[in-house]
Amino acid sequence: MQWQIHVSEIVFTFTLFILTKIETWRAGLLLNGGVLKLNFFNLIYANDYSNIIVEDFIIQCVTMSSDVNKLAGIETSAISLLRRAVELDSSKRYDEAVTCYQEGLQLLLQVLKGTKDESKKEKFRNKIQEYMARAEELKTHVQQEKEDGKYHEQIHIDSGSLGNSYEKLFSRFLDERVTCVEIEDPYIRSTHQVYNLLRFCELIVKLKCPVKEIKLLTSKEENLQAQDQQHQKLGHVKQGLQKHNIDLDIQYSSTLHDREIRLNTGWVIKIGRGLDIYKGVDKFAVGFCDFDLRPCHETTIDIFHRKNIKENK
């Protein structure tokens, strides 16, 4: 009788333990987009505890399946980035190509680490070596051209294209040596154009460049009321930048036509449309806040160094 009581206590304790694990498993497991339903209660009530080993095996399979899917997703992203790198490389947009090569290689290294198949691992190793060699070659080439002042990059943006945020286009040149930025753009007047300026200034703040001064040269609105509104909007931008120890110097010109950004490091960024390269979208549409998702107007951007201009004169 005493022996039977001990057995009952053991079964009861074990049952509580299993039930606790069930709740954890049920809360966290997903299989093919649906909840994995484990029939533990039937097993327990039937006193068939041995079958729980089978269920535990299923859980391990689900975990393995999740890891495989995650690895496949990383591989897809790596392939996409490396294809983009090759496209940029072919278009002689070498600086951007280097960035894509580096990001794609980081992802491909993760795939290599998680791959068990030796033949696939060898394939990934060969590809990594190939892309890494090209990235290093381009990086050296770009660095040498920058040092010589001969670097010239032309970016053509197609109408409706995506992935052309200010950060993607210009962050490469906003480094730790930039202390002054000059912006010449006759159309920083209407609300959306002032927002464009603000987004560019936010990028400077976000990148933590040691910029102390931003010089803006633009044109005035046509009537006095619109001019007052323009001045107020730009004044708000100026006040916001002062909180980050950046002074915005605003000047106006009635004859200004060219659109370019000049950095004290010597880089000149000429934009056909100035900062106004994005198409208008609804305030609640995807792309309103994230410029990488905002469709663009067609335009051309030329990036070069002032040293190259002096040498060519």
Describe the structure.
Residues 121-148 form a coiled coil. Pfam families: MIT, MIT_C. Keywords: Coiled coil. This is MIT domain-containing protein. It comes from Patella caerulea (Rayed Mediterranean limpet). The structure is a single chain. Helices cover 55% and strands 14% of the residues. With 313 residues, the chain is α+β, with helices and mostly antiparallel strands. It has two domains: 68-147, Methane Monooxygenase Hydroxylase, Chain G, domain 1 (Up-down Bundle); 153-312, 2-Layer Sandwich (Endonuclease, Chain A). The strands form two sheets. The protein has a seven-stranded mixed beta sheet with strand order 3-9-8-7-4-5-6. The chain is elongated. The termini are far apart.
Work out the oligomeric state of the chains in this entry. Answer: single chain
Mean pLDDT: 81
How much strand?
5-15%
Q: How large, in whole angstroms, is the Cα Rg?
A: 30 Å
SS elements, strand count: 9
Cα(first) to Cα(last) distance is 108 Å
Secondary-structure arrangement, i.e. CATH architecture of the largest domain: 2-Layer Sandwich
User: CATH superfamily membership of the largest domain, which one?
Assistant: MITD, C-terminal phospholipase D-like domain
Shape: elongated
Give the class from helix and strand content and strand pairing: alpha+beta
Helix content: 40-55%
